[in-house]
Design brief:
Shape: globular
Organism: Dorcoceras hygrometricum
Distance between the termini: 104 Å
Low-confidence stretches: 6-14, 16-23
Strand order of the largest sheet: 12-17-16-15-13-14
Keywords: Glycosidase, Hydrolase, Signal
Number of domains: 2
Mean pLDDT: 95
CATH superfamily of the largest domain: Glycoside hydrolase, family 3, N-terminal domain
Number of helices: 21
Pfam families: Glyco_hydro_3, Glyco_hydro_3_C
GO molecular function, one term: beta-glucosidase activity
CATH class of the largest domain: Alpha Beta
Protein name: Lysosomal beta glucosidase-like
Structural class: alpha/beta
Helix content: 25-40%
C-alpha cells in the first residue's frame, strides 16, 4: 500500500512539474534541434492572433515597439525611399530597427520580426551605399554571371551594415516591351539571360564569411514579380498579360524555376493580371503551380497594397480582397499602413470558416521556416560591427567593373578602319556636354535614395564628367557646357566632344512611355554638338530609346544604361584602359511603331539586334 501511495505521489509531482519544465524549455529556441521540429513546436504554442500577426508586413512609419508587441507583427518594411532620417548613418538604421525588434522580442513567444527593403541595385535607399548598375545593364554583362553573384554578396553585406536582413530583389521579369516603366529592372527580353542572372540569389543568400556569427551577412532574397509582369499589353505597368500557357511557361516562368532551385527565400506576386485574372488572386499559379508543382518552400509575399488592387477601384471590397489573396496562397501581406483592418478581417474570415485554419498554418509555417533558416531567432538584433562595409572601396571597385562590362558600343567611327574609340587622352581641348554628364542622380536613376530617384548629388559617387577629368592628360583643356550652341562649339576648335544625355529618373508606372523619345534638351544637344565636332554620345537610359534620326550625325554611340554611382567605369573604356565587351540584352528598335519586338519574332527588323555590341581592345601602356 505504501509503495503504491509513493508511486501516485511521484506521478502527481511529475504532472504538476511538467508545465513548469515545458515553460523553461521551449524546443523551438534550441538551434541544435531539427528545423521542422522547431517550427512544429512553435506553431503548437501560437494563438490565432499570433499567427495572423506573422502574416502582416507594415511600413516602418507606423511601426513601434508597442505596435509590434500588441499585434505580433511579423515583418516591417521601408517603402521606396523610406529611411529613419535624411542621410541616415548605418548606426541610425541599426538603432531604429533594433528599437522595433525589441517590441517583437517582448512578446510572449519572442518571435523576431523580419525587416525588408528594396535593395534593387545595391543598398540603394541608404546614403553613401554603393549603387550598382540597374539590371538591364547587368544583362549586358551576361558572359560573366559570376559578376552578379559578387554584386549580390556585396549588397547583402551593405544591407547588414544597416541591420537589414531582407531585400525585395531580384526582379526576374522578362521585359518584352520597353515602353514598360520597370524595364530597366529586367535583365533582358530573353528568358535564358534572366535565368543566368538569378545567380545573384546565392550571392545575396550565400556563404557566411569566416569569423562571422551565424546569419550574417545572409539576407533573404525575393524573386519578383510572379508572374508575367514584363509581358503586359503595351508595357503598361500592372496591366494584363495576354499569353497562352505554353508562352507563359517558356517565357515568363523559367527564371522562377532557377530561383526555386537556388533556394530563394521569398517570392513576390505581381500587380498585373494574366489573361484577365489578377495575379494576387491567382490560386492556380500561386498554390497550384508555385507551391505544389515547383515545390517552393519559402513564403509568398504580396506587393505594396497588392491585395487592395484585386478589386476595381482598389480597396472597394477589402474583405473580398483578403479572402481572394490569402486564399490564392499569399502568405505575407504588405499591408502596409492599415494593419488593424487586415488583422480584423482575417480573424473574422477564419472564425466564420471562410478561410481555413490550415491555410493560415501553411502561411505561418513558411514564414517561420525563413526566419529560422536565416538565424533570426539566434541573432535578432543588429550591431554596428559591419557599418564599415557600407559603400566600401572594394564594393565601389566591383561596381566600377560592372559598369565597364555593361557598356555596349553601338557605333564607332565611319568604319572599322577609322574608329573614334578609344579616345586620345591627350588633346588640345575637348568638350563634355549634356544634362547627364555631371549629375549623379540622373546617372543612378530610379530607386536611388528616393522611390523615383532625383536630380543632383543625392549620394556619394563619381560622375562621368569627374571620371573623364581624372582620365585625360593633365595638359588637355576640358570644357563642360551642359547645353552648348553650335556657334559656341565652332568658335572653340574642340578636338572632340563627349555628349552625355538620357532619360530622367523614374520608377514603376511613372516611367511608362508610349513614345520613348529622349527628353529635351537631349536631342537638341546631340544635334548641336555633333553637327560641329566629332562626337561620342553616351546614352543614360533604362531601355532602348528613339535614336535613329540622329545616328548619321553621331560618330560613336554608347549605351550606358543606368550605370549607378561609379562613373569611372565609363571613362575606363572610353579611353582604352579596358575594352568594350557588353552585348545588347534588348532589341534596339527603329521606331516605337514596331513594338513589341523581340528576338525570334517573325517580323524582326531592328536598328541594332539583340546581342549586338562592338568590341574594342584595351590600349597597351608601355
Amino acid at each position: 500500500m505504501g509503495k503504491c501511495s509513493l508511486f501516485l505521489i511521484l506521478l502527481l509531482v511529475f504532472y504538476c512539474l511538467g508545465p513548469i519544465v515545458d515553460a523553461e524549455y521551449n524546443l523551438y529556441t534550441d538551434p541544435e534541434k531539427p528545423l521542422n521540429r522547431r517550427i512544429k513546436d512553435l506553431m503548437r504554442r501560437m494563438t490565432l492572433e499570433e499567427k495572423i500577426g506573422q502574416m502582416v508586413q507594415i511600413e516602418r512609419t507606423v511601426a513601434s515597439a508597442k505596435v509590434m508587441k500588441n499585434y505580433f507583427i511579423g515583418s516591417v518594411l521601408s517603402g521606396g525611399g523610406s529611411a529613419p532620417a535624411p542621410r541616415a548613418s548605418p548606426e541610425k538604421w541599426v538603432d531604429m530597427i533594433n528599437e522595433i525588434q525589441k517590441g517583437s522580442l517582448s512578446t510572449r513567444l519572442k518571435i523576431p520580426m523580419l525587416y525588408g527593403i528594396d535593395a534593387v541595385h545595391g543598398h540603394n535607399t541608404a546614403y553613401k551605399a554603393t549603387i550598382f548598375p540597374h539590371n538591364v545593364g547587368l544583362g549586358a554583362t551576361r558572359q560573366d554571371p559570376e559578376l552578379v553573384k559578387k554584386i549580390g554578396a556585396a549588397t547583402a553585406l551593405e544591407m547588414r551594415a544597416t541591420g537589414i536582413p531582407y531585400t525585395f530583389a531580384p526582379c526576374i521579369a522578362v521585359c518584352r516591351d520597353p515602353r514598360w516603366g520597370r524595364c530597366y529592372e529586367s535583365y533582358s527580353e530573353d528568358p535564358k539571360i534572366v535565368q543566368e542572372m538569378t545567380e545573384i540569389i546565392p550571392g545575396l543568400q550565400g556563404d557566411i564569411p569566416a569569423n562571422s556569427r551565424k546569419g550574417v551577412p545572409y539576407v533573404a532574397a525575393c524573386a519578383k514579380h510572379y508572374v508575367g509582369d514584363g509581358g503586359t499589353t503595351k508595357g503598361i505597368n500592372g496591366n494584363n498579360t495576354v499569353i497562352n500557357r505554353h508562352g507563359m511557361l517558356s517565357i515568363h516562368m523559367p527564371p522562377y524555376y532557377d530561383s526555386v532551385i537556388k533556394g530563394v527565400a521569398t517570392i513576390m506576386v505581381s500587380y498585373s493580371s494574366l489573361n484577365g485574372v489578377k495575379m494576387h488572386a491567382n490560386r492556380d499559379l500561386i498554390t497550384g503551380f508555385l507551391k505544389n508543382t515547383l515545390n517552393f518552400r519559402g513564403f509568398v509575399i504580396s506587393d505594396y497594397m497588392g491585395i487592395d488592387q484585386i478589386t476595381s477601384p482598389p480597396h472597394a471590397n477589402y474583405t473580398y480582397s483578403i479572402l481572394e489573396g490569402v486564399g490564392a496562397g499569399i502568405d505575407m501581406v504588405m499591408v502596409p499602413i492599415n494593419y488593424t483592418e487586415f488583422i480584423d478581417g482575417v480573424k473574422d474570415l477564419v472564425e466564420n470558416n471562410f478561410i481555413a485554419i490550415s491555410r493560415i498554418d501553411d502561411a505561418v509555417k513558411r514564414i517561420l521556416r525563413v526566419k529560422f533558416t536565416m538565424g533570426l531567432f539566434e541573432n535578432p538584433l543588429a550591431d554596428y560591427s559591419l557599418a564599415k562595409y557600407l559603400g566600401s572601396q572594394e564594393h565601389r571597385e566591383l561596381a566600377r567593373e560592372a559598369v565597364r562590362k555593361s557598356l555596349v558600343l553601338l557605333k564607332n567611327g565611319e568604319s572599322d578602319s577609322k574608329p573614334l574609340i578609344p579616345l586620345p587622352r591627350k588633346a588640345s581641348k575637348i568638350l563634355v556636354a549634356g544634362t547627364h554628364a555631371d549629375n549623379l542622380g540622373y546617372q543612378c536613376g530610379g530607386w536611388t535614395i528616393t522611390w523615383q530617384g532625383k536630380s543632383g548629388n543625392l549620394t556619394t559617387g563619381t560622375t562621368i564628367l569627374t571620371a573623364i577629368k581624372s582620365s585625360i592628360d593633365p595638359d588637355t583643356d576640358i570644357v563642360f557646357k551642359e547645353k552648348p550652341h553650335t556657334g559656341y562649339i565652332k568658335r572653340h576648335n574642340f578636338s572632340y566632344a563627349i555628349v552625355v544625355v538620357g532619360e530622367r529618373p523614374y520608377s514603376e508606372v511613372v516611367g511608362d512611355s508610349f513614345n520613348l523619345t529622349l527628353p529635351e534638351p537631349g536631342s537638341t544637344t546631340i544635334k548641336n554638338v555633333c553637327a560641329a565636332v566629332k562626337c561620342v554620345v553616351i546614352l543614360i537610359t533604362g531601355r532602348p530609346v528613339v535614336i535613329q534620326p540622329y545616328l548619321d550625325q553621331i560618330d560613336a554611340l554608347v549605351a550606358a544604361w543606368i550605370p549607378g554611382s561609379e562613373g569611372q567605369g565609363v571613362a575606363d573604356v572610353l579611353y582604352g584602359e579596358y575594352g568594350f565587351t557588353g552585348k545588347l540584352p534588348r532589341t534596339w528598335f527603329k521606331t516605337v511603331d514596331q513594338l513589341p519586338m523581340n528576338v525570334g519574332d517573325e517580323h524582326y527588323d531592328p536598328l541594332f539586334p539583340f546581342g549586338f555590341g562592338l568590341v574594342t581592345e584595351p590600349i597597351k601602356v608601355k
